[in-house]
Specification:
Belongs to the aspartate-semialdehyde dehydrogenase family. Helices cover 27% and strands 22% of the residues. The protein has helices at 15-23, 46-50, 62-65, 75-78, 93-105, 137-145, 163-167, 210-221, 265-274, 278-282, 303-306, 338-354, and strands spanning 5-10, 30-37, 70-71, 84-87, 110-112, 152-154, 175-184, 224-226, 229-231, 237-244, 251-259, 292-295, 315-322, 328-334. α1 (15-23) packs across α12 (338-354).
Length: 359
Amino acid sequence: MNKKLRVGVLGATGFVGQRLITLLNNHPFFEVTVLGASPRSAGKTYKNILESTWKLDTPMPEYAKDMIIKDINSINEIKGLVDFVFCAVNMPKEDIKKIEEAYAKAEVPVVSNNSAHRMTKDVPVIIPEINNNHLKAIEAQKKRLNTTKGFIVAKPNCSIQSYVPALTPLMQFKPTKVLVSTYQAISGSGKTPKEWPEMNDNVIPFIGGEEEKSEQEPLKVWGNVDETGITLAEYPVISAQCIRVPVSDGHLATVAVSFENKPTKEEIISLWKNYKGRPQELELPLAPKQFLTYFEDETRPQTRIDREIEKGMGITIGRLREDNIFDYKFVCLSHNTLRGAAGGALLTAELLYAEGLLK
């Protein structure tokens, strides 16, 4: 596994695309050979498009500055330049479905940041530490698409990646009901605080489509995989509220949960502290050494000081206590543009590479 694979970033000018390009700088497995965007950006250099609108504190990597942006619709040209692509485009859902399938049918594997294919039965929705076994569904997908190596793997919604990792080690106790509220950062909208002054000193109690995703996508992540694809888990029943709050990065969630077999508080904390997944076993470059961190301090986790834990790839949890209606309640936090978006997609690609599914 010494040879670097060639990778394209579709939607390279957007917030997630920018994150991917910074994370891929000097990556040990992958080398960026294509930056793709809409036809209006095609033919221009990356720095000319983004010099005045770069959204990140991290500087634009030197390798990307003079790269010429290609039209994402130029699949026949791009497929000869890449071994796989990340897809982080901002387009209508049906258009995303079509273009991702078009790349897959052109024998280009797609690691998607988009929601378009998340509920497609044979498309794995991967949190690498949790459901790497779902990669088995790729074979069913290849049969449907009639491909040899082309397929789509999706990353789940950023809103679920604070509380699904915290609940996963507790699945052995059969959680039956989950009530979750997510307090989501401005960057989840693809904007910065400067670009959205209306969010200053404000909270918006609605984010379109987020509550449905927050209630359904965890059931895909926890679902059963067979030769036909992935069947949704039947439990737990999840009720979600998603709220936009005036912080730059970091999605915080409050969770209440009931179990068929109620564990002790000590059992829960021990499971969190000792949980490891396939990325930790493989020591993947972006994998956090400690996936879940529990704080005894009642004032933690805090968005500003804890979102960067494990370079933004760790999940933090705190305030575990018994509840008057549910069995337990707690608070958890994830970095939405690292673990929840670009970093989660890159870790998924690292897993695919290490498991021999990218060639």
